[in-house]
Amino acid sequence: MLLPQVEESVLSVGKFNTIVQLTAFSPFKSAQSALENINAISEGIIHADLKLFLETNIPPSGKKRKVVLGVADGKIGAAVQEELGVSCQTGGVVAEILRGIRLHFHSLVKGLTAQSASKAQLGLGHSYSRAKVKFNVNRADNMIIQSIALLDQLDKDINTFAMRVREWYGYHFPELIKIISDNYTYCCLAKLIGNRKELSSESLEALEEVVMDSAKAQAILEASKSSMGMDISPIDLINIESFSSRVISLAEYRKGLQEYLRSKMSQVAPNLAALIGEVVGARLISHAGSLTNLAKYPASTVQILGAEKALFRALKTRGNTPKYGLIFHSTFIGRAAAKNKGRISRYLANKCTIASRIDCFSEIPTSVFGDKLREQVEERLSFYETGEAPRKNIDVMKEAVAEASWSSGDLLGDFRFVATDDASEVTAELKRKIEKKEKKKKKKEKRRLEALATAEEEEKEMKAQSNGEASHLCLSVSFNENDEAEVVKKKKKRSISDVSENGVSEIPPTKKKKKSKEVMQEEAEELPSIVPEVTQSGKKKKKSKVMEDE
C-alpha cells in the first residue's frame, strides 16, 4: 500500500482490473432518489436502496470464507455493521481501492462514459448543495444580521460625514453650528443656503420648512447678515453642496433600512421585537449568529451577551462581573433605579429567552406572547418602585394562549401575519390544527372512559366471585360440658339454579388445596369474633356466634 509501485498500479486500468472485479452495480432510478440516498449517507443512515443492494450482493461469510466490507465513511460503516451484521473496514487499503474505483468507474461499467459520469456527479453535487443551503425565505434571519450590521455602519459613517460638512461649511457660516445641533438638519440647511450673502427674507419660509421652527429660522437669517465667516468661491460651494446632498441621501437611506429591519423582525422574531424593540432584538440575533443559536442560549448568557470582554476581565482580576450586555440599550434598564438595574436585567434576559424560543419554534409568527411578556416586565418595574405584586407567570401565559387561540372561527388578540400570500390559507391551516387537537382530546377521553368502565366491571366480577366463595363455607362452633371447643366445618352445597338466581357467576368445583397463612387470616377476619373468658379452673372459655345464612 505504501510502495510507489502500488500507487502507480492503481492509476493503470489493466493492473487495477487484476485486483478489483465488478460483480454488482445498481444505478439510481432518478435524480430525486440519488439525492435521498446521499442525504441519508451524509447523516450516517442506511437508505432502503443501499440496504437492499447490500443484502442482495454480499455473500454470506462462513468459517472458511470471511467477508469484509470496505467503507470510506466510518459513521456509515458502523451503521452497516450494526444493522446488517457485516464486518466493515475503513481507512488503509480501502481508501486506495476506492480511489481507483472512482478513477476507473466508467471503464468498469459497460455503457458508461467518463463524460456522462462527471455530468451525473456534478448534477448530484449541485442538488445536494442546494438542498443543504435551502431555507425559508420569509423566515431568514441572515437578512436581519446583515441589515443591523449595515445600520450600525451607516450611523458611524453619517456621523463622520456630517461632522466633515460642519467643519467645511463652518469656514463660511460659523454661527449656524451653534444654532442647529442636528446633523441631518444642518446638512439640509448647508445645501439650501449655499452662499450666506444671498440669504434674504424671501427664503424665510423655506428655512422654516427645514427647521420646523420660526424663531430658529429668524435667528439664522439675522446671523447670516452679521456673520464673521470668510468668503467662499463658487467651486468650493458646489463641492460642499454635493457632499451635503450625499449625506442627506445616506440619512434617508438609513430611515428606509430601519423600516426594512422592522418589517423583517416582525416576520422572523415578532415576540422578541415586541418585548425589547427591533434594533436591540436584531443586535442580539446578530451577536448570537442566528435566532436558533439565541434560542439555545440560557438566560444568564443572554443577559451578558455583548459584554464578554468585561466578563473575562472581571474573572481574571476577580472583580465584579457585568450585570448586562446588549440588553442595556432597552428602555427598561434605563428606567430602573440604580440598585434595581441588575435585578431587572436578569428578569428581562429571562423574558428575552422565552420570546426567542417562541419565535424560533412557532410555525406562525405572532406578537401576542411578546406583548404579554412586555407587560410582565412593566409590572416587575412597578413592583420594584411601589411594591405592588405582579401577576404570576402561569396566569399571564394562560391569557396569552387564550388570545392566540381561535374562538368561533375568529382570531382573538392582535396577530400580525406577515409573509403570507393569502390570509385564508393561514386561517384554514389554523382551523385544521385545532380540529386535530380536539379530535385527539376526544379520543383520549373516550379511551379513558372505556378503561374506567372495564375496570368497574372487573371489580364487580371480583366482588361477586368473593361473595360466592364466602357463602360456600359456614363455620359453626359448639361447646361441650367439659368446655372443649369443637369447630365443625360444613360446606354449604348449592345447586347451579340457586347460584344463578342469586346473580353469582357459576364457580367450577376445585380440588382441595393447602391454604396459605394470608388466606387463613382473611377467613378468620370474615368469621365473627370469638371472645375468650377465663373460668374458675383457669381454662379459657370461648363463646362464638354462628354465622347467619343469607
Automatic annotation (TrEMBL):
Which SUPFAM superfamilies does the record associate with it?
Nop domain (SSF89124)
Location in the cell: Nucleus, Nucleolus
Domain Nop: residue ranges: 268-386
> What is a single Pfam family found in this protein's UniProt entry?
Nop
| Presence of keyword NADP | no
The family database entries (InterPro entries) matched by this protein are listed as:
Nop56/Nop58 (IPR045056), NOP58/56_N (IPR012974), Nop_C (IPR042239), Nop_dom (IPR002687), Nop_dom_sf (IPR036070), NOSIC (IPR012976)
Keywords, in A-Z order: Coiled coil, Nucleus, Ribosome biogenesis
Q: Where is this region: Disordered?
A: 486-550
Could you tell me which SMART domains the record lists for this protein? NOSIC (SM00931)
Q: What is its main location?
A: nucleus
Assembly notes: Part of a large pre-ribosomal ribonucleoprotein (RNP) complex, that consists of at least 62 ribosomal proteins, 45 nonribosomal proteins and both pre-rRNA and mature rRNA species. Within this complex directly interacts with TCOF1 in an RNA-independent manner. Core component of box C/D small nucleolar ribonucleoprotein (snoRNP) particles; the core proteins SNU13, NOP56, NOP58 and FBL or FBLL1 assemble stepwise onto the snoRNA. Interacts with NOP1 and NOP58. Interacts with NUFIP1, RUVBL1 and RUVBL2; RUVBL1:RUVBL2 seem to bridge the association of NOP56 with NUFIP1.
Q: What family, per the record?
A: Belongs to the NOP5/NOP56 family.
Function noted in UniProt: Involved in the early to middle stages of 60S ribosomal subunit biogenesis. Required for the biogenesis of box C/D snoRNAs such U3, U8 and U14 snoRNAs. Part of the small subunit (SSU) processome, first precursor of the small eukaryotic ribosomal subunit. During the assembly of the SSU processome in the nucleolus, many ribosome biogenesis factors, an RNA chaperone and ribosomal proteins associate with the nascent pre-rRNA and work in concert to generate RNA folding, modifications, rearrangements and cleavage as well as targeted degradation of pre-ribosomal RNA by the RNA exosome.
| Protein's name in the database | Nucleolar protein 56
Lineage of producing organism: Eukaryota, Metazoa, Chordata, Craniata, Vertebrata
